[in-house]
Every structure is written in C-alpha cells, then in structure tokens.
Amino acid sequence: MKLLLVEDEKRMAQALAELLRLENYEVDVCRDGLSGLEAATGNLYDIVILDVMLPGIDGFELVKSLRKQNIRTPVLMLTAKSGLEDTVTGLDSGADDYLTKPFLTEELLARLRALIRRNIHSDDGTLSFGDIALETGVSSLICTATGQSVRLSEKEYRILEYLIANQGRILTREQLAVKIWGFDSDAEYNNVEVYLSFTRRKLAFIGAKTTIKALRGIGYELRYSDV
Predict the structure, then answer these.
(1) What is the pTM of this model?
(2) CB within 8 A of 58, min separation 6: which ones?
(3) Using CA atoms, how far apart are residues 30 and 6, in angstroms rounded to an integer?
(4) Which of 18, 97, 128, 157 could cross-link to 152 by cystine, CB 3.0-4.6 Å?
C-alpha cells in the first residue's frame, strides 16, 4: 500500500512517515503543495495524507486540482484548524476525510483503513467497472450483462482489483509487477504479461465488453464499450 504524505512541518512529517512505515505502508513525503501536487499527479498512490497549511499552494487548492484532473485517490486532510467551516471547505474541495491535529495515532490508522476499504469496494462487497463486477469473498468475476461468472486466481483477481481501483488511469507494467508481486519478489515482468493474458481470456469467457487495453510503450488500462 503506497501513500503520499504532504506535510511541511519537518518533525511531524518524519514522525508520521516512520509510524506509517512501521505499519508496512510505503510512504513518499513532500514538504510543500506544489511538489505534493506533482507527486500526486505523476504517481499512483492508494491514499494522499494532506496538510491544509502548505507553502506554494494550500491543501484545499491541491485536492481541487486533483479532482479536476479526475484523480480519485482518497485524500485524508490534516489540519490544526478545528472549525466547522474549515471542515466543510476541505470536504467540499474533494477530500474524503478530515482529521484535526493533535490526533491519536490509532485514529489516524483507523481512518486510513476505512478509506482503503471505501475506495475499492461498494456497499454490497463488489468492485465494478463497465459490465464486470468482482465478488470479493469468493474471488469471482461476473459479467453484469450476460450473468455469466468465472473464478479467478489470486493474481488475476488482484490485477483486476488494481485496474478497477485506478480506472481512468494507465498503469505501467512495472507498477503492476510491484503491486501484485511486491518489491522483494523475483518475479519478472513477463509474468505480468502472462497473467494479463489469463485475465483477458476470462473476460472473454464471460462475454464481457470490458477489456484490458495495452498501450504500446506506456502501460495498461481498463476500457469498456457497449457498441
């Protein structure tokens, strides 16, 4: 799980980054709004933890910019301001949650877990895109148009989960390899191609019009056409 922390106060940034890494999160840290915006738009993160008061551009403007670019990465805003007006401004800007300093580390970690669950799963336990849905409990792929379903292997399920969670964005082969196999894995990049091929066959098997599109030299994205 990869997080971006945008916090200008050095000690706070160091303490939060250390805490999150102890919880097995991978953390990138930015110390101002402009570099935070550049990192958030140029990389794939599972969550952005964002201070409001930042040099360059503030947290409100940063999250507004992300949403205008259709980047739906969950944003948890941190601020020393506790007024209702600031909370409303943050949420209206596009943030998903709001935590006032000082806060308990247990609450921060709980908020992060809740955002992760909210980001990738709907209320009925499925994850959907186009005419496909993933059933999380049984690792099953369903075509909502045909009603057909098929079981997925762990790798196939995780590939589709990652693609759906980042729908509208192109994922590189390297990003898929790291996400599915991990940083410490000896898996080669051709493993990604093999499992993408398996996953495409299962999409075709259930009659889905959702496809995994390869963009030569760039990466992969989910596409759906009802034509």
Answers:
(1) 0.60
(2) 33, 52
(3) 5
(4) 157
